[in-house]
């Protein structure tokens, strides 16, 4: 396994970083386009491992997708066909596509990386069975025996492990014969903004969706059967992928600008602005550019990240470099992500001399003098970028398998190094 010497800087970072499109929006748009009533174009689509796996999977089911850069033309198949789907480690592929596969005329075989075989999938697969699907298996690998249609109806699930279980049902539901009503019965739903993103995108495609006005208390969604209108999607930059770069400004007392930041968005990554301000940074949007300026001293934070759990690795890295304790709460569900992110973060920060304690639903992080060493990524892209943030302030950190960032940001290393170049402050201290 290769180890990347994380760049260390001893002066403030000053840079403008232009980011590619959102993975969450790209993969939802691809599915809606594949199920639409005509051709669609995606502009600004992310091209990364997760989105390329989605493209390959939809092609395997008979969808025509043309374009190799960030502009894609999607032409739905007259009839979806059977095929093989490689999920890799992409939750959006393994949890969104079984519903699509149930509409195919033929068998669809799903498999993925070794780490993906332990990710929970029974919630979505059992739900589809209750709606009329024929599926062998409860986790990867599994096979959906499609017969060209799905009855649909009403289903009750416990989606407290992942909001993707709800989105995975809603995205295809308009194509079910009876549509769909899905009830969530369980603990509070994590990552509600991602469900709101799904609902908003369905409505843009003229799908009738009933969702509770108060998303905090959302328990039931209803999708009426009918066509999905072809939409030309303009994909926003991936705001969660922006967070390590904004963190670079915060931990070095520098300034980082991100162009094309949306004024209104359903992306959870937008919450990073509030988090950084609460930790002492400045954040402002002017003329579509978000500018973050770091403080002289970074303050700890006590915050519930339940709705924005994907930001936890970035916030944990910030907290490890702050000058007062932090408590990250509401994120027990991260134990079922690409890896057990709570265990991974506490293990790796503590390996570098940190003081991180796992709690029932999160992490307690007490400032400590960190030192260099190896940082293991656990094949988790956000773990890798968290290590890079720490490396800016702690010399001698080596990150295992930085290439795992290709899951959502294939050119992370180039963007990171370009961000540091303007100051001429890069020091490769680890070898």
What does this entry look like structurally?
The chain has helices spanning 23-34, 49-60, 91-101, 122-130, 164-173, 192-204, 239-252, 272-278, 312-320, 341-351, 381-393, 412-420, and strands spanning 3-5, 14-16, 40-43, 64-66, 71-75, 81-86, 105-111, 134-136, 142-147, 153-157, 180-184, 209-210, 220-223, 233-234, 255-259, 282-286, 289-293, 302-304, 326-329, 355-359, 362-366, 373-375, 397-400. The protein has two domains: 3-20 and 237-423, Enolpyruvate transferase domain (UDP-n-acetylglucosamine1-carboxyvinyl-transferase, Chain, Alpha-beta prism); 23-227, UDP-n-acetylglucosamine1-carboxyvinyl-transferase, Chain. The chain starts with a strand and ends in an 11-residue tail after the last helix. The strands form six sheets. The protein has a four-stranded mixed beta sheet with strand order 2-15-17-16. 30% of the residues lie in helices and 23% in strands. The chain has 431 residues and is of the alpha/beta class.
């Amino acid at each position: 396994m290769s180890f990347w010497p994380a760049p260390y800087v001893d002066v403030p970072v000053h840079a403008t970083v232009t980011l590619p499109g959102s993975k969450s929006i790209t993969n939802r748009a691809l599915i809606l386009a594949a199920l639409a009533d005509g051709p669609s174009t995606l502009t600004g689509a992310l091209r990364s491992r997760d989105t390329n796996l989605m493209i390959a999977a939809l092609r395997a089911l008979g969808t025509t997708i043309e374009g190799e850069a960030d502009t894609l033309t999607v032409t739905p198949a007259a009839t979806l066909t059977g095929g093989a789907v490689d999920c890799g480690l992409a939750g959006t592929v393994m949890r969104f596509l079984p519903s699509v596969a149930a509409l195919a005329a033929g068998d669809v075989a799903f498999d993925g990386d070794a780490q993906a075989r332990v990710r929970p999938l029974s919630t979505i697969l059992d739900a589809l069975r209750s709606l009329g699907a024929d599926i062998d298996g409860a986790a990867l690998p599994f096979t959906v025996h499609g017969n060209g249609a799905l009855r649909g109806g009403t289903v009750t699930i416990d989606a407290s492990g992942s909001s993707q279980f709800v989105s995975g049902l809603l995205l295809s539901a308009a194509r079910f014969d009876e549509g769909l009503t899905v009830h969530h019965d369980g603990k509070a739903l994590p990552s509600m903004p991602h469900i709101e993103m799904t609902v908003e995108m369905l409505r843009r495609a003229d799908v009738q969706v009933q969702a509770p006005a108060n998303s905090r208390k959302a328990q039931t969604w209803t999708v009426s059967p009918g066509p999905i209108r072809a939409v030309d999607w303009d994909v926003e930059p991936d705001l969660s992928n922006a967070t390590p770069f904004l963190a670079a400004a915060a931990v070095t007392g520098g300034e980082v600008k991100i162009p094309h930041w949306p004024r209104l968005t359903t992306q959870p990554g937008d919450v990073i602005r509030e988090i950084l301000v609460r930790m002492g940074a400045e954040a402002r949007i002017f003329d579509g550019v978000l500018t973050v300026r770091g403080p002289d001293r970074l303050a700890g934070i006590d915050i519930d990240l339940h709705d924005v759990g994907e930001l936890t690795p970035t916030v944990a890295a910030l907290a490890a470099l702050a000058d007062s304790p932090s408590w990250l709460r509401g994120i027990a569900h991260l134990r079922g992500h690409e890896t057990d992110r709570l265990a991974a973060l506490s293990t790796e920060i503590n390996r570098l001399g940190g003081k991180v304690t796992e709690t029932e639903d999160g992490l307690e992080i007490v400032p400590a003098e960190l030192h260099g060493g190896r940082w293991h990524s656990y094949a988790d892209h956000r773990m890798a970028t968290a290590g890079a943030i720490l490396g800016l302030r702690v010399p001698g950190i080596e990150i295992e398998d930085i290439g795992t960032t290709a899951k959502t940001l294939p050119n992370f290393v180039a963007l990171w190094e370009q961000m540091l170049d303007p100051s001429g402050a890069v020091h490769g201290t680890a070898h």
